[in-house]
TrEMBL record:
This is Unannotated protein. It comes from freshwater metagenome. Gene3D superfamilies: Rieske [2Fe-2S] iron-sulphur domain. The keyword Protein biosynthesis does not apply. PANTHER family: 3-PHENYLPROPIONATE_CINNAMIC ACID DIOXYGENASE FERREDOXIN SUBUNIT (PTHR21496:SF23), FERREDOXIN-RELATED (PTHR21496). Residues 42-135 form the Rieske domain. The keyword Iron-sulfur applies. One of its GO terms (molecular function) is 2 iron, 2 sulfur cluster binding. Residues 143-193 are annotated as: Disordered.
Amino acid sequence: MRELRTEGTVVDGPVAEVGTTPAAERFTGIADAASLRAAGFTDVGAAADVPALEGRSATVDGRRVAVFRLPTGYAATDAACPHKGGPLSDGLVADGCVTCPLHNWRLDLTTGQVQGDDTVVPIHDVLVLDGRLWVRIAADAGPAPAPAPRVTAGDAARLWDPTASGATSRAAESAPSLADGPGGRPADDAAAT
């Protein structure tokens, strides 16, 4: 997952760009970092760290968000796809939408509408001040979505091991293992030939 870096110094100054959300456009008069903080915005990193038509993830008030750079500005939504928790910041960005890399759910980054479904995801406010991205969680966002389950290496081995549940099969018994040498012979035998 690609993340924004938050190190650096924020210098007060005029707002350079406004995000694509209608709510963000109400804040064009805010001209310094202290005012943005007072309005509930969080500095999530350098705007330059988000390449055109890509996304990056960050944390705002304990909530994982994905920030995208569109031709018209920036947009932000929750980082996890509402379908199966896929990392939206790694998704394909085109035509004002992001497509989840796991199952191709497509979300409109202006309205939050999931195409082909009744689901609407929150679109968070985004502003750029002196080259820094500022995000505020949408007032109607509700509780943060549950994080996607993490699969450890041990979990993955059990998921793919046909004998893990005690069941065996001829294919599993005869399949070469990673410890086998060429042709499925034990590594010691393979080295002797």
